[in-house]
Specification:
The protein has a single domain (32-223), classed as Rhodanese-like domain (Oxidized Rhodanese, domain 1), CATH 3.40.250. By secondary structure, it is α/β, with parallel strands linked by helices. The protein is globular. Strand 4 (126-129) and strand 5 form a beta hairpin. The longest helix is centred in the N-terminal third of the chain and has 20 residues, at 7-26. It has 5 helices and 10 strands; from the N terminus they run ααβββαββαβαββββ. The N and C termini lie far apart (71 Å). It has helices at residues 7-26, 43-47, 103-106, 140-147, 162-173, and strands at 68-72, 93-95, 99-100, 126-129, 132-135, 153-158, 181-186, 195-197, 199-201, 207-209. The strands form 4 sheets. The protein has a 4-stranded parallel beta sheet with strand order 3-1-6-7, covered by helices on one side.
Length: 227
């Protein structure tokens, strides 16, 4: 016996497709696979944008994902006096798998504790003013997309959490999906098993920094075109 597709069955198929599309695009899953959705910590840490679930205490469980990139937003040597607030101005170590992209090269830095004083004031890819971001170079967006791929989950870290939070604010404001960006917090508070030490004491008793260990993304502004 031959079976024929009726208009009623076609209508049922179309409705099923419509429901599927609505489920994916109108009500998308707000958490990447295998991860809790981003959720702010309480108090001051939340004000910095640090995540409640994926932070310095738990990041070891989420390292090495092929669908993710890991970015430490510190400078190798920051002009700011971070020792004044219990941190370090030279990058003394990092969490294994994180690559360094200095936030002060991405955007102008504001709102730091008074004790830190003035940080880097050189050229930046973007300028932030009143919550709006303006590209300073024709290549600014291309560089940003290369360093922070929009099709990846992004884990952000720095010394105390502030630079990482600023970076997420910039990315979300420029169109990145905030549900795929996690502010992990500060290396200064990390006590996990993936700590890569950069600072050491050499044979002469002097303190040295082995920056060769760092996967570092520099930005050569002299090669860029001003807007």
């Amino acid at each position: 016996m031959k079976k024929y597709i009726t208009w009623g069955s076609i209508g049922t198929i179309l409705i099923a497709i419509l429901v599927f599309c609505l489920g994916r695009f109108v009500f998308p899953n707000t958490a990447p696979a295998g991860l809790p959705k981003p959720e702010l910590s309480a108090g001051e840490r939340g004000q910095l944008g640090i995540d409640k679930n994926i932070n310095e205490s738990t990041i070891d469980k989420y390292l090495g994902r092929s669908d993710s990139v890991y970015r430490d937003m510190r400078m190798l040597e920051d002009p700011g006096d971070y020792e004044a607030i219990g941190g370090d101005s030279k990058l003394s170590g990092f969490v294994n798998g994180f690559e360094v992209v200095p936030l002060p090269y991405i955007m102008n830095v504001t709102g730091l504790p008074a004790a830190v004083g003035q940080t880097y004031t050189g050229p930046t890819l973007f300028t932030e003013k009143d919550g709006k971001y303006t590209a300073n170079y024709r290549e600014s967006f291309d560089i940003l997309k290369d360093l922070f791929p929009q099709d990846k989950i992004i884990f952000l870290m720095c010394g105390g959490g502030g630079y990482a939070g600023m970076m997420k604010n910039l990315l979300v404001s420029l169109g990145w999906d905030g549900s795929k960006i996690y502010v992990v917090g500060g290396y200064w508070y990390y006590n996990g098993e993936n700590n890569v030490k950069v600072i050491r004491t050499n044979a002469d008793g002097k303190t040295v920094w082995d920056f060769y260990k760092v996967a570092y993304h520099d930005i050569n502004f002299s090669t860029l075109t001003r807007e």
